[in-house]
Amino acid sequence: MNGLEINHVSYRYGERKALDDVSFQVEPGRFCALLGPNGAGKSTLFALLTRLIVADEGAIQVAGFDIARSPRAALARIGVVFQQPTLDLDMTVRRNLRYFAGLHGLSGRSAAIAIDRALAQLGMAERADEVVRSLNGGHRRRMEIARALVHQPDILLLDEATVGLDAAARQAITDHVHELAGTGLAVLWATHLVDEVAMADQVVVLHRGRVRSDGPAGELAGES
Ligand code: ADP
Ligand code: ADP
């Protein structure tokens, strides 16, 4: 499958077990919320998925590539939206995206096409030539998502993607991410907000480094 597969993954910081035998899958076209309170292990899982750290045990497959054996191929299939902004505030959106396209080996016409596509997917095509600093918080966050899509990944990871935004901006972002899943992306959306899981097709609840439940959002009544 072209989605994400996490099999029996464990990770320790010294004595502290941050992830303990974590297994779940996100299929292509699925919007999966990863729900857990602070300290549950969400950031640790993202660090594993972006290969900032390496699992002590278990395996992770990204679009069919084993992240330990084929890290470059696996990472090329993942787009990540971090909590921290990555765009240069004083450059235009397009110039920022061209820079990130370049990191993925895209330039010239193929970069321009990929950038236009990513911006259109977030409803931001008409703002491409604005300087990032001139955009409001919601639009900046949408540009961060577009940035994560320029290399046309199969899997999109979002870490607390709506923190600090108002309700309208949050709704716009969740709607766009939903549409992205509709195009076949596997989406993993980390959040500590129970309210945010209603929009998901699948909810994985992480608690103290373990998967406590995994299923449709409707089955979540009474969780964390
Ligand atoms: P979340 O992102 O869900 O808040 P984290 O992955 O940051 O959870 O943390 C999971 C656990 O690992 C917590 O108990 C946290 O204290 C611990 N932890 C996270 N980062 C480190 C670190 N660099 N060193 C030691 N312990 C850490
Ligand atoms: P040029 O069009 O002149 O090749 P680039 O757009 O590639 O310029 O950017 C020039 C330099 O500016 C890059 O090598 C990079 O170090 C820095 N840069 C550009 N965009 C960013 C960004 N979003 N974040 C951090 N550094 C950036």
Give an account of the 3D structure.
This protein is α/β, with parallel strands linked by helices. Helix content is 30%, strand content 27%. The chain has helices at residues 42-49, 71-76, 93-103, 108-121, 137-149, 167-182; strands spanning 4-13, 16-26, 31-35, 57-62, 65-66, 78-81, 155-159, 186-191, 202-207, 210-215. The strands form 2 sheets. It has a 6-stranded mixed β-sheet with strand order 6-7-8-3-9-10, with helices on both faces. Strands 2-1-4-5 form a 4-stranded antiparallel β-sheet. Strand 1 (4-13) and strand 2 form a beta hairpin. Helix 4 (108-121) crosses helix 5 (137-149) and helix 5 packs parallel to helix 6 (167-182). The longest helix is centred in the last third of the chain and has 16 residues, at 167-182. It is globular. It starts with a strand and ends in a 9-residue tail after the last strand. 40% of the residues are buried. One adenosine-5'-diphosphate (ADP) is lined by residues 87-88, 91, 95-96, 98-99, 102. The site of one adenosine-5'-diphosphate has 11 residues, from strand 2 and helix 1.
